[in-house]
Amino acid sequence: MKQLTAATRARYFRRQLVNRVMGGLCIAAAGVGLILLALILWMLFSNGLAGLTLDTFTKPMSQPGSGGGLANAIIGSLLQVGVGAMIGAPLGMMVGVYLSEVGKESRFASIVRFVNDILLSAPSVLIGLFVYQIAVLPFGGFSGVAGSIALALIAMPIVARTTEDILRLVPQAYRDGAIALGSRENEVVGKVVLPAAFGGILTGILLAIARIAGETAPLLFTSLGNDIWSTDMTQPMASLPMAIVRYSNTPYPEWVALAWTGAMLITVGVLVLNIASRFSYAAVAGKQGG
Fold this sequence. Notes:
Elements: H1 2-48, H2 54-58, H3 71-102, H4 107-121, H5 124-136, H6 144-169, H7 172-180, H8 185-196, H9 198-213, H10 217-222, H11 240-248, H12 253-289
């Protein structure tokens, strides 16, 4: 009995040692990640704040030495990301609802889920080339609409996967209770399941917007960019990612400073969207819990 007790103690202490070592490694890895993130943010802000002036938000892109800004690129990004989100988010939600509530484990639903997974991992440059073939060449030119379509195709699978996962977390008792009260299937989904999962779905939409806000490759083949004020979605349209690519590869200090400023603005925007998604989910979850 004493030998068995000693062996048991030895295993216990060995497990504790392994647990502490692995816990320390995890903390160290997290620390390295935080340090790298802090260095990236420091580099962005230290270089980007130098070009942050009133002209950045009030003047369009122009030739070096003329005091240009990024106003048209900022407006172009907001328009294209906004339209892309308005196209991709509803489509993604409908796909997620179908996979979770209608198709479930059917053969067609499995195919849709497989295709959605492929879109999730597909390089954005391929999506840009695809939209170039279907929305640029047939209409004879680049346009903000084509850029928005490309961004929508990137956002849609993210929203679809998030919606499906969140809807599956809604307790089955919610559905059974609504059906027992005489609700039809569409009423169960629209009035019970979706409101219960609203916080998670909203989080997925915000994360999808954060993802497409910094995409460059799809816009290179679709909206291309320009140097003038333009809100016409049927014409080539400027964007912050394209402005960063253009300005960062020049020998002009003024343009390089604007490139850093554009990168900082995108980073801040993505950070704000991520924080907003967490707060929105926490707020909705707290309201439902209360």
